[in-house]
Task: structure prediction
Amino acid sequence: MDYKGYIAEKLEINDVEKSTLSDFIEVPPTADMGDFALPCFKLAKVMRKSPVMIAEELKNKFNGDATFTEVSAVNGYLNFKINRENFTAELLSEIESQGDLYGSATIGNGKTICIDYSSINIAKPFHIGHLSTTVIGSALCKIFRFLGYKVVGINHLGDYGTQFGKLIVAYKLWSSEEKVKEGRLKELSRIYVKFHDEAKQNPSLDDEARRYFKLIEDGDEESNKLFELFKTITLEEVDKIYKLLKVDFDSYAGESFYNDKMQPIVDELKQKGLLKSSDGASVVDLEEYGMPPCLILKSDGSSLYATRDIAAAVYRKNTYDFYKCLYVVAYQQNLHFKQFFKVVELMGKEWAKDLVHVAYGMVSLESGAMSTRGGNVVLLEDVIAKTIEKAYKVIEDKNPDLKDKDKIARTVGTGAVIFSALCNNKIKDIVFSYDRVLSFEGETCPYVLYTVARCNSVLNKNQIQDGFTVPTLTAEEYDVIKELGKFKDVVKVAGDKYEPSIVTRYALDLSASFNKFYFACKIACEDQNLKNFRLHLAKSVKTVLTNALNLLGIDTVEEM
Ligand code: ARG
Result:
């Protein structure tokens, strides 16, 4: 039963939508405060009364309602106590019948969300700095799909710029097709670094690079063939990591895709009187909005990162008619997004308000930060491989007789890497530690996976029967029920706030409440009905934890 919806329906307040009322209703932090509460201060403005008076007045609407065992007005809150046994029976049956769809919704039906994430740069190493955008973006895709939205995942490839001219020059001087096919991204990195070293001595190399970049743009066959080679190599390499992380995209339209879509934008900006020239360059002045000007064309007429982003936004609106377009990009680019969103707004596009920069913090290793050009790069591939290797050792230590240790280590290791990037509020910087992410205690992936395995082991050792009557609940049992009942809201709020960590924290909380129950209440007890009820509780916990982890892109294991 949808208690919040039911309460909202009965409250019936003029000028307040049912869905808004339902959103106001909270689950109090401790069970003695009731099961649901309406903070009446949220209605003080529309009802023009004090919260205390509102609570008293609204209480009367529930006189004689058998859904609740008690409705009370306390300090401006309207508190509801439900019949917990009924609630439990309904909830467990709903979870069991919905299975892997439990927690899903239809609120997004008919709406499309574009999510621009991962958005790697061609011929550059895929390093630990790309972890967050990749896994946050992927989790948001899964969360929004679960909520019923149509999602278009976009890898806005960085495949445009003079660096490709530099690579061609470097390739011609110091590499070959064989070498590139052999050494892959490492070879491309090597010649790129070498180019920068040599160009310090010999600046004419830079002129050559500009010339080759121009050739790419002008459609020169040989230059484009090389460019395609660099692109293919990069995509093949990152695809291995995407597969491990269960990440996929609906579109790989990168920056160069917009080559022929920028001129109309420039024309429109001109026509709307937004373009100003400044030292030969064309800019949109944003002084009035407290920002530096947004560069649209350089003095040589070439486009910029922002020009391509504006063209991409217009293209996405025309192609997908999005409800929202999200950009999962590090906070270092805050200004870029504020600027180009403003330009889109100034162009008179009312949908500019639907562009959202989903910013996140930095990831570094305990050993220190890294830089791309200096060569001191920490590859994501290496981090995942090392985590899997360490996971194998941990598992072997704890459970040497386990079958399929390789496969389990792969799931636990990759899961641990993903979980670490989704565990805290996304804007926080993270320091990655192998030992910490693999610990079985604390806020970790192994802790949650182990809880699933624990449910599974109980269910394997005991025969579960179909029917049961809900007994008078212990505090520990009811805490688990309460957590299970939160999942739908959790998914919705995670979507509303673009914050997968809400799902991650939830998985940790549900695991903690289950483990407390597991140690306080014997599941395989004498009383057959009680035992059966507890087995159903474990089964539901397994289902919901699995659903939560799947939204994050993490597989579960049966045993570990
Ligand atoms: N390739 C860019 C980078 O690595 C990120 C692109 C983000 N997406 C966008 N539409 N600007 O910094």
